[in-house]
Target: Transporter
Amino acid sequence: MKREKFSSSLAVFLATLGSAIGLGNIWRFPYVTGMNGGGAFLFVYLFCVLLVGIPVMISEFFIGRKTRSNPVIAFEKLGGRKWSIVGYMGIIASLLIMFFYSAVAGWVYSYTFKSLMGKFNGATLESSKDIFINTITNPKGVILWQLTALLVVAIILTMGVKGGIERATKILMPVLFVLILICDIRALTLENSLEGIKFLFAVDFSKLKSSSILTALGLSFFKLSLGVGAMITYASYFTDDDNLMSTSLKVALSDTLISLLAGIAIFPTVFAFKMEPSYGPGLLFITIPLIFSKLPFGNVLLFMFFLLTSIAATTAMLSLVEVPVAYLMEVKKIGRIKSVLMVTCIIALFGSLAALSVEGNVLSNVKLLGKSVFDIFDYLSSNILLPLGGILISAFVGYFVRREEVIIEITNKMRIKNVNPLKIYLLVLKYATPILIGIIFINSIF
Ligand code: PHE
Model:
C-alpha cells in the first residue's frame, strides 16, 4: 500500500498549524494563564516554547519524515525494539487527551448552535454564567454534542490525508485569525481594558504558584501538539523537500501569536466585567458572549467565533486521532475506515465518562486521588506523559541518533549549505532540552 503525502509545503504548514491551533489557544491558554497569575506565567511559557517546544518539534519532524512511519515503527526503525515504547506512550497520551478534549469540543459545538439560535441575546455576566453551567451539567446535552464532534472528526479522517486533513485545514486558519482580531479590537475598547493587558503582560514572579512551572511546560507541549507522536505522524506525510527547521519556527510563532491574541481578547473583558481572572475552565465560555453582546451584528460574530473555534478544535482532533489510526493501519494492517471506527468508539466510551464527571454533572462524585475523571485524564497526559515523551524524544535524537543522519535529513534534502542554525539546535537539544524538562519534572513531582 502506497503511503499518502501532503501535496505541498503550504499544505504541510497549514495541516501542522491546524494540529497546533485548537482549544489549547482559545480555551486553555487564557484560563491556565489566569489561574497562574498572568504575566510571569506567560514569561515562563514563552521560555518553554523556545528552549523545549521548538527543539522537540524539530526532533519529531525528523523522526517522522526520516522513517515515514507511525510513531511505534518510527522509533523501532531508528533505535530498535525497546524504543518503540515511546511510540506506545504517545498513543496512550493521544487517547487520554482525546477523552477530555472531545468533551470540551462538544461544549464548543453546542455554543455554536446556541449562538445561532440567539440564546445569548443581551447577555449579562449572570446569564452568561448560567448558560455555561447549564451546558456542562446537562448529561444528555454534553454526550450528544461530544458524539457530534467525534462524528465530524471520524468522517474527515476516513477521507484520508489529502482529501480530509489537508482540505479541512486550508481555508479555515486565515478566517479564524481575522475573527480573533475583531474580538481583540472590541475587548480593547471596553472600559478598564488596560487592567487586562497589564495582567497578561506585567511580569510579577511572586504571583507564580509552585506548580506553575510544570504547568507551563505541559501547556507548551499540549499547545504545540508535542510528546504524543502527532507531529511524528504528520511529518511522516510531509513532502521530501519541506524545510523542517523553518516549518517548526513558523508553526510555533503563529501558534503563540494566536494564544496571545486570544488572551488579549479575554483578559480585558474579564476586568471590564469584574470577573476573576482565575475563574478556570469556564473563562472563554463566559467572556466571549459578553464581548459581542453590545456590538452591531454581535450575534453573527458570536456564531462565527464559536463556529471557527469548533473548527480549530476539530482540526486539532484530526491529528490526535490520526496517531492511533496510523498505528492500527500500519502495524495491525486494519483498513482506514475500520481503524477510525474502532478508535472513535474507544474515545466515545471513555470520553463520555470525562464529560459526565465535571462539577455538577452526574458523575462528579466519582473521584480518583481527589480528582474527577476529566481532571485525571488531563493531569496524566499534560503533566506526566507529554513531558516524559518530550525528554525521551529529545534525548533520543540528541544522544542516540547519529548527528550526520539528522543533518542530512534536515539540510541536504533541501540542499541547504549553511548548517550553523541546525548545529545550534543540536546543541540545545543535547544539553538544554532534556535536562530542563527533567529538572522541572522531578522538582514538581517531589
Ligand atoms: N495542540 C492542540 C491544541 O492546542 C492540542 C493537541 C495536543 C493536538 C496534542 C495534538 C496533540 O488545541
User: Anything to note?
Assistant: Residues 68 and 236 are 4 Å apart (CA to CA). The two ends are 48 Å apart (CA to CA).
